[in-house]
Amino acid sequence: MTPVQAIIAKELRGYFVSPIVYVVGAVFLLIFGLLSYLYVGFAGAQAIQLMQMQGGMAQINLNDLVFRNLFSSMRIVLVIILPILTMRLFAEERKLRTFEFLMTSPIRINEIVVGKFISVFLIYLGLVALTILVPTVLMLFSDFDWNPIWTGYLGMVLLGALFLSVGVFASALTENQIVAAFISFGMLLTIWLIAGLGNLFGDTTAGRVISYVSYMEHYDRLLRGLIDTSDLVYFGSGLALMLFLTHRVVESTRWK
Amino acid sequence: MSKIRDQATWCSFESGTAPFSAIVRTDITFVIDVQNITKRYGHHTAIDRVTFSVAKGEVLAFLGPNGAGKTTTMRILTCFMPATEGTARVAGFDCTEQPLEVKRQIGYLPETPPVYQELTVTEYLTFVGRLRGITGPKLSSALDQSIGRLELGSVRYRLIGNLSRGYRQRVGLAQALLHDPSVLILDEPTVGLDPKQIIEIRELIKSLAGSHSVILSTHILPEATAVCQRVVIINKGRIVAEDTPEQLSARLRQSEKISITLKTCPADCEMKLRAIPGVLNVLSGQTGGSFLIECELGRDLRDEIARVAVLNQWGLLELRTVSMTLEDVFLQLTRHEDHFSEPAETMVGMASTQRTDA
Questions:
Q1: Of A52, A89, A37, whose CA–CA distance to A242 is shortest?
Q2: Which of A119, B222, B233, B355 is 20 to 30 A from A31, comparing alpha carbons?
Q3: How far B176 CA lies from chain A's nearest CA (Å)?
């Protein structure tokens, strides 16, 4: 087992021993289920309306009415929930003085950062995988196209990875977990709202640049079923940037 | 390994005074070699031009009051933080340039035992081993050995969060010893242990001497006397003395002291004791019949005192020489560092009549 794997194993163990994963997981799945139920309910109501107007069977598009709305709504859920998952990663080590131990172990800082990120990412993947139950159940009662759903999931995974990397970064900044959670919450919300700023500038270069920085348009395209390389590059580079910044922050704590 | 200076001057006492003594060592391979390291936090200087070395198999104690710079020095050696100036080398590797190599050589126990409360003892030590790249059967044998050494067998499957302070400290030590490092750096290793465990840990450290180089910091003085071959006394970030515990006390001793206890003590006995040639001063103790006699340096007057006591039929109950404990040396050095060459009268009188031992 390599040192990175050892860190991943230890972090996973830490997550499952503490109540964090269970609470966050339960809330995440509950909200996902509730939202699915609501959107299916709306879709059903619309279908009944259509049937009354047209008579006979109405064809409704579950992809548009349910899944796009569902994935779109999950953004705010992720903004609120994921900082809770990441807040302990570095803050706890510093609080409990195990940070010094990690830093004096013969491993590189990037191994620590990557190990910690992968552990929380695996937990997130597990939670997302559980939600596949919803489209699977719906498949039994209706007919829809799976492809946009897969791209929606891809979007949720990429967006989650980006959020988690922001959370890891925030956690490295402080030894207080609450402060760490709040910093990442604030950062995520700010990047969200930057999209609005971009809209204000309209279709100018500045507007386009500002909009590019926000994750909104990239995520929306994936929800529409579009896999664009520029979006993948956006998520990949954002993730790399945050992990790099985390590395710098962890490194800098040695100098203080 | 660094083959070091032919002539190493060990004592770096305050400038302006002649060196207390210079032990000249030749042809010694130093495992730890620290040259003039300084660490500044903003305007605050935590350690100031500290220089010392540790030979292979040597146990060195870092002695000093709280905030003297012991932990900072250890953190620099373990590559947790870089020094502002100066160089530190461990097993020939430079602490700033080859930190990974240095970290591989070192077993380190920080001030607070670095344990994860949510792991069991075995899980924790397995994690430590894997971080150090030990795997498979090697890992399980290292695990058993270090659990055995620190007698953690009874708690090996318990969560560290549920263990007492003493056990956590031992788990921390097990962590430092796991990979059988050539250099051990222990920051106050016996804190939080009960007296029996303290003795066991000291025995353990003694048993490591010879094969391992150990630096331990402590402010418990008998500990340094009990386990270390050499003591570095550090105060306000500077090394104020460095020698063997015995040498240190011998050096700072101003006079030979003899403590006697008499059964009967007539009024003239103090006068008669003073009359013995070579006696400088006689101090009567707290209880009637006990005296502390200061004699000229280098003269053993025990025989003469005994003769006088028997001749006058005072009933000699006890007679012994009083050696200065490390505690006295320590107080003297850390309180009177600026004019240690002429220690205050009070300090001499403070030489305790009991030798505190482990």
A1: A89
A2: A119
A3: 10
Between chains, do A101 and B114 touch, taking CB under 8 Å as contact? yes
Q: Does A100 touch chain B (CB under 8 A)?
A: yes
Q: Considering only the beta carbons, identify the residue of B75, B103, B112 that sits closest to A106.
A: B103
Unique residue bearing structure tokens 């505690």:
B327
Alpha-carbon distance of B146 to B140, in angstroms, equals 10
Q: Do A1 and B127 touch (CB under 8 A)?
A: no
The interface pTM score, or ipTM, of the predicted complex is 0.86
Residues of chain B with pLDDT under 70: 1-28, 249-255, 286, 323-329, 332-358
Task: Please check whether residue A59 touches B, CB under 8 A.
Answer: no
CA distance A246 to A166: 9
**SS3 assignment, position B130:** helix
User: In this predicted model, what pLDDT tens digit does every residue of A132-151 receive, in sequence order?
Assistant: 999 999 888 888 888 889 99
Q: Which fold has domain B251-349?
A: Alpha-Beta Plaits (3.30.70)
Give residue limits of the domains in chain B.
2-247, 251-349
Residues 166-205 of B with CB under 8 A from A: 175
> With an 8 Å Cβ cutoff, is B93 touching chain A?
no
Q: Domain B2-247 class?
A: alpha beta
For residue range A28-50, list pLDDT tens digits in order. 999 999 999 999 898 888 888 88
Could you tell me if B327 and B352 are in contact, meaning their C-beta atoms sit under 8 angstroms apart?
yes
